[in-house]
Design a protein that fits this description.
The protein is an alpha+beta fold. Helix content is about 30%, strand content about 15%. It contains two helices and two strands, in the order H-E-E-H. The protein starts with 16 loop residues before the first helix and ends with a helix.
Length: about 80
Amino acid sequence: MELAARMTSKGQITVPKAVRDALGLGEGDQVVFRVEGRRATLARTPDLLDLAGVVSVPASVRGSSWSDVRGATRAARTRARH
């Protein structure tokens, strides 16, 4: 699908309805633009809740605080470098 849109003087573009429908975009959804050379692509950003369960969490770290997990990760990286 290839559709055209016109940019306003404020740099705004209306995403055509066919594109919104194809990407499942609705009011308040976030999108990401990827620029490669003189081309840009638009993609729907996933809702973080949609990613729940995608990454398995080892039983040994379930229930750990985020700061504990980050600290352990940093320590492991430091050990790996030396």
